[in-house]
Each structure stands twice: as C-alpha cells, then as structure tokens.
Write a structure and sequence with these properties.
7 helices, seven-stranded mixed beta sheet, alpha/beta, binds S-adenosyl-L-homocysteine, 7 strands, Rossmann fold, binds magnesium ion, single chain
Length: 196
C-alpha cells in the first residue's frame, strides 16, 4: 500500500470533516481481521473510500469489497481515491441509496460493515442477515452515538436515530442466530457473529 497517498487521503477526509472510521476502531478491527483472507466484504457508507481502502488488507488475493455511497460527490472522490491506491480491481463502489441497492444484491459476504444513516440500521441488519452465512461478521459503527444511546435524555434531532440504534442493538442481542458484543470503542462498535 502506498503510505504517502494513503496519508493524504486520510488528511483530506479529516480536513473536510468526513466522519471516517476512528483510529481506535480501526486498530481493533485490524487486530481481529488483518490478514484473515476474506473473500467478500460489504460496506454500507463509503464516504471517500478511506475505510474500504483500510479493509482491503483483510482480503484474500482474489477478494472483493462492495461498498455503497449515496452522495455522488463523495462517491466520485472515493472512486478516485481507490484508483490512486491501485485498488480499483478489488473495491467496487455502488453509487446510490443503500435502501434501494441492498435488495438488488444477492451475495454471501464474510464481513458486513454498517456505517451509514443511523435511522436505517434495523433495515441494514435485516439485509445483512439475508446476505450472511455461518461465520459472517456483521459490524456496525457508531452504535452508541456519542453516548446518546445509553442516556435517557435525547434532543429531538437525535431521537429517531437513537430509537433505531437501540432497535438494532436489541435485535442483534436477542437473535439466537447471532452472538453479539457491543464495545465501547470509538463511537461504539457492535460485532455480531452469525452462528447458523
Ligand atoms: N465508512 C466511511 C465513513 C462513512 S460516513 C469511512 O470510515 O471512511 C457515512 C456515509 O454514509 C456518508 O458518506 C453518507 O453519505 C453515507 N450514507 C448515509 N446514508 C446512506 C444510505 N442510505 N445509502 C448510502 N449511503 C449512505
Ligand atoms: Mg462511522
């Protein structure tokens, strides 16, 4: 991986206030997934491609990442960034709303990373379950949303997001097909392993 271009992509994303994956979250995912030779990874919420580029190190030689972004400007920048890292043969960017694109996909993924509209997390989980197999990891970022999810006072603006994040956590913990851990890393990370 070209370290210099990678650091430039990260710096520009931070300068532009793009909510890229936090360093401690990435460090944790690296600790469980680095060199794990995954064949297929699905990401919901590409932004400018930073996390996809990081996750490319979890792939097998012929592994592929499918990633979805609805903001056309960001998707365009992601495609450029991915090209500049010479990863365009491994990372496919789908431009559009994941709510519309997910139902058109029909693959089984080894890792599914949910990092988009919080109000849609329960729907993303149901789609992730449909495209899972035994051993798939379903990972959701920002699951504790600055602590709002654990507190009883929420401003109106966050109310819908918080309700849906709580619904996601409840489903992930209650579903007998999943073994779920909620970790206080970064902005909160949910990791579910598909058991059957
Ligand atoms: N995973 C990225 C950061 C993603 S930020 C990284 O760590 O580098 C969340 C992104 O999800 C934003 O760019 C936003 O435009 C996108 N998004 C939000 N809702 C979406 C939806 N319904 N479908 C597709 N993309 C969505
Ligand atoms: Mg995030």
């Amino acid at each position: 991986m070209d370290r210099k271009i990678f650091e430039e992509i990260k710096k520009k994303a931070l300068d532009d206030h793009i909510p890229i994956i936090m360093d401690d979250t990435l460090e944790y995912l690296d600790s469980i997934l680095l060199n794990s030779n995954k064949d297929r990874i699905l990401e919901i919420g590409t932004a400018v491609g930073y996390s996809s580029i990081c996750f490319s190190r979890y792939l097998s030689d012929n592994g592929q990442i499918d990633t979805i972004e609805r903001d056309e400007e960001r998707a365009k920048e992601a495609i450029e960034n991915i090209k500049s890292m010479k990863l365009d043969n491994k990372i496919n960017v789908f431009v559009g709303d994941a709510v519309e694109i997910l139902p058109t996909l029909d693959n089984k993924y080894d890792v599914i990373f949910i990092d988009a509209a919080k109000g849609k997390y329960p729907f993303f989980l149901s789609e992730a379950l449909r495209m899972s197999k035994v051993g798939t990891l379903i990972i959701a970022d920002n699951i504790l949303y600055k602590g709002y999810v654990m507190s009883d006072y929420n401003k109106h603006k966050q109310r819908t997001a918080v309700r849906n994040l709580r619904e996601y956590i409840k489903e992930a913990l209650d579903n007998p097909k999943l073994k779920t851990e909620i970790l206080e890393i970064g902005d909160g990370l949910s990791i579910s392993k598909v058991l059957e």
